[in-house]
Specification:
about 140 residues; mainly beta; Metal Binding Protein, Guanine Nucleotide Exchange Factor, Chain A; seven-stranded mixed beta sheet; three-stranded antiparallel beta sheet; 1 helix; 10 strands; about 5% helix
């Protein structure tokens, strides 16, 4: 399929937030930071797309929470689903992989913020690991 015409859909558990993404998605990066641990109960599996390629088709339940001076996180205020990580100064938005409608055909490509990883699980694959951010070193990690 032509990646310029490809459309991926996703949303929250209850349907009060739905979105479409036109064009390619970045493969999955697992973020092990302390904020992702609090939000997801373990680590956050994130894809990413350019902001201009994301269209909200239903945002009646969408809320944003400013988690730092760098970014905000989007979630459904009705069912609590975590959906987005959106940096203020970059042209891309992180998309929680579990909110994508499948099949996604995406693969996990690495781990970030492993220096903050909790002690109750191990990373057992051979994918690249970064103590903090990958700083764009992973394929299609838009800045």
């Amino acid at each position: 399929m032509d990646t310029n015409t490809e459309v991926t859909t996703g949303g929250c558990l209850c349907g009060a937030v739905r979105y479409e993404i036109k064009g390619p998605l970045r493969d999955i990066v697992n973020c092990h930071c302390s904020m992702c641990q609090k939000l997801h109960g373990i680590y956050g599996a994130h894809s990413k797309a350019r902001k201009i390629n994301i269209t909200m088709t239903n945002e009646t339940g969408l809320s944003w929470y400013k988690t730092s001076d760098v970014a905000q996180r989007g979630f459904c205020r009705d069912c609590g689903s975590s959906l987005f990580w959106q940096p203020f100064d970059l042209d891309a938005t992180g998309i929680i992989a579990g909110s994508l409608d499948g099949p996604t055909n995406l693969k996990t490509m690495g781990h970030i913020f492993v220096g903050e990883k909790s002690d109750f699980y191990e990373i057992t694959d051979d994918l690249p690991q970064f103590e903090k951010s990958s700083d764009g070193k992973l394929v299609n990690d838009y800045k």
